[in-house]
Amino acid sequence: MKALIVVLALMLGAPTVSHAAHDDARLRLDRLTAVADSLYACGQPDSAAAVGRQAVEAARLSGDRAAQIAAYASLGVYQRSGGHTADALRTYEQGLSLATGAQLADSATAENVATLYVNLATLYLDEGQRGQALAYVRKVAGMEGRLRSEAFRRQIYPVMASIFLLNHLDADAEGYLRRSLELARRDGATDEELMTLCYYLPLLQRQGRTAELRRTEARAGVLARRTTTFMTLVNYYQTAASVALADKDYPRAARHIDGLLHLDGIESYGYVVYDAYNNLHLCYSHMGDYRRAYETLQQAATLRDSLFVAEKSDAMEEMAAKYDAREKELKLKESEALRAEEEAVASRRLTALAGAAAALLLGAGLLVQRQRIRAERQRRRAEAREREYADLVRSSEARLRRSYLAGLENERERLSRELHDGVANDLLAIEMDLRQTSDCDGKTLRRLGEARQSVRDISHGLLPPAFREATLDDVLWDYLGQTDERATAKVAYRCLTPDAPWERLSQAAALSVYRIVQEAVSNSLKHASASHIDVSLGLTPDGRLTLDVTDDGRGSATPARRLTAGQDTMRRRAADLGGQLHVENGSGGTHVHLDARVELSPPA
Q1: pLDDT by residue (tens digit) across 461-494?
Q2: 456 Cβ contact list (under 8 Å, min separation 6)
Q3: How distant, in Å, are the alpha carbons of 36, 60, 112 from that of 104?
Q4: DSSP secondary structure string for all residues of 64-111
Q5: Which of 157-161, 164-168, 404-408 has the lowest mean pLDDT?
Q6: 174, 203 in Cβ contact below 8 A?
Q7: How far apart are the first and last CA of the chain?
Q8: What is d(CA 37, CA 277) in angstroms, rounded to the nearest whole number?
Q9: Which of 244, 228, 138, 152 is nearest to 190 (CA)?
């Protein structure tokens, strides 16, 4: 049943906004939405989420409230499908802040708000909070009169019905299911009809309407043979297997699960496959085929380990760091307590000696001096332990920062490969197919070419440069020169120390500086509307590196209260270099300055 709930969350794809796009931000939003949808349809929810975050920013720049709500709703679906429930909840909360008080007279805005509510409902359903899920579905039911698109209602009714069904409100659920079936059959929408029947089957089984259940199963089987839509078939096989398991028809359940496992692309949904192997193990066990039952159980165990090994590794590393820090903290407190106790003992001894005879004054003085020396030693030991604890904290922070940056670069390389080998090739195949048709116009081919080039540019920008063959100075000359040719702004680069030992700079340090330049120039082009960008770089023989990126764009009279994700990453990279990054953002433009002391390898 848990796997079925997950599929409910995946049913609603990214909603589209019906307004025509005229400005640059809106055109970029349309392209990003198409890329994110393609990645999600290919079974890559994490990559879709990465592009979806860019779509949210483009929607914000467009100023279209409905587009922003739609972008947040889509991003939440990608994050939830990738297993990032906390991120999805934060995304939906941002969408809700826009949806609250929105004018719902516009059908597009109403549909986007309804989609957001339904996605929130499925998220709460995943977390077992059925009452909260039901509250959001009732909100959608209350605004039904504003949802004028029959195609949209046809898609959303089954999801609403499923939530009523899980809250045991069978009458409400059946009402929405019948209306959805009527619309789907009238319009010949095979996928929507099959999806609705998948929600109808559990209702009929629970109510004991056996004859109607068998007719519905037969109809669903016919429709499943007519469709090739991945998520629709996933939902069908899961539901059919669940019904068969409830009927204790284990051979039929095994056939449906086997059909699910043979779907192209199902391996990208690890949790669905893991649940399928568990159910298949039960089927074989009840059928007496213990060999295959054992094999499928092993497959489930192997998949479980692969799903959770990274999470366990991170958790164990974090736990070890916390334990070490806590152990040092406890030792420091014990040292302070010991010192306080010894000082108290010394004080009591001094009080007793004060009433002694004059003959004992010399001995008392010697004893006091001894205690002072002892206390001083204890103080120095405590200070040494404090310094050791501070060094541990700094090393832990450096290790976590390097782990974060390494993970960021790995994710960039993975996303670059997926964009280049997947989306760009798919767009090329579509373009070649269109060229073979007689009714294709040049405008469509031109747009496809532009989209493919945009994907390739994004892919190439994500890859790290090859610093083994070129120095940081060479790479920046090439990168900023190409940026100057493509961008509307004038981009100028100047090396302050052309004779510096650039070849002695480590690859890790060179990559960090390159990424900081990349992010700063990208921010100037995207957000500041700059017409001129100056980049200067210098390096002294003793390893002092300076970088300045200045633009004349639209800045801000007051500094931002919160760092953006890009600025936060730049500061982390600067800290990893052992330097500091300063960002001055004013009405006359933005100035990014990096000052770091880097290590240079010995001369060859």
Answers
A1: 665 665 666 788 888 898 888 888 888 889 999 9
A2: 419, 420, 424
A3: 26, 19, 10
A4: -HHHHHHHHHHHHHHHHHTT-HHHHHHHHHHHHHHHTT--TTSHHHHH
A5: 404-408
A6: yes
A7: 65
A8: 28
A9: 228
Mean per-residue pLDDT over the chain, rounded: 76
Arithmetic mean of pLDDT, 151-173 = 82
Regarding beta strands 544-551 and 579-586, do their DSSP bridges make them parallel or antiparallel, or are they unpaired? unpaired
Beta partners for residue 589, in sequence order: 586
Using an 8 Å Cβ cutoff, are 516 and 594 in contact?
Answer: yes
pLDDT for the residue numbered 12: 40
- Asked if residues 498 and 473 have their Cβ atoms less than 8 Å apart, the reply is yes
Give the Cα separation of 292 and 283 in Å (integer): 10
Of the pLDDT bands very low, low, confident and very high (cuts 50, 70, 90), residue 390 is: low
Distance CA 294, CA 306 (A): 19
- 151: nearest Cα among 109, 188, 105, 99: 188
Spatial distance between the Cα atoms of 414 and 237, rounded to a whole number of angstroms: 31
Beta-bridge mates of residue 535: 493, 549
* Confidence grade of residue 334 (pLDDT, cut at 50, 70, 90): low
Distance between CA atoms of residues 528 and 523, nearest Å: 7
Residues in Cβ contact with 400 at an 8 Å cutoff, skipping those fewer than 6 apart: 321
Per the confidence metrics, is the pTM higher than 0.70? no
**Sign (positive or negative) of CA dihedral 394, 400, 401, 406:** positive
The SS3 assignment for 265 reads coil
Please return the burial class of 384, using the count of CB atoms within 10 Å of its CB with bins 0-12, 13-18 and 19+. Answer: exposed
* Tens digit of each residue's pLDDT (9 = 90 or more) over 448-469: 777 766 776 666 566 566 566 6
User: Which SS3 state, helix, strand or coil, does residue 215 take?
Assistant: helix
- E strands of 389-527, at which residues? 490-495
Contact present, 500 and 541 (Cβ < 8 Å): yes
Rounded to the nearest 10 degrees, the angle between the axes of helix 442-462 and helix 424-435 is: 160
Q: Which of 248, 246, 242 is nearest to 260 (CA)?
A: 242
**Radius of gyration of the chain from Cα atoms?**
32
| 192 alpha carbon, distance to own chain's centre | 29
Strand-pairing partners, residue 595, are: 546, 580
Q: Which residue from 190, 200, 188, 201 is spatially nearest to 233, judged by alpha carbons? A: 190
Angle between helices 507-527 and 565-576 (to 10 degrees): 160
